[in-house]
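From the shared-data thread, chain only:
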Amino acid sequence: MVRLRLTRAGRHKLPLYRVVVADSRKPRDGSFIEVIGTHDPRKNPPLTQLKQDRVLDWLQKGAQPSMTVRTLLIRSGLLKK
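Structure, as tokens:
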């Protein structure tokens, strides 16, 4: 199954996350299909940048977002509750 999920980037104690499309069987920081955005939780408020057209394209293809990515999509207005 293809999932939209976060993968960790950034230095020690300075997290930065990429929103990626990946096979659910791969490890969290393993290989992925495509990077579709970023999430920086250190900003106030947290900064999320998404490629809206790519997110919608992958959702139409049947990719399932993780719970955290689902929350980010709802906050950005791309997904309804």
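The beta strands are 2-11, 14-23, 34-40, 47-50, 64-65.
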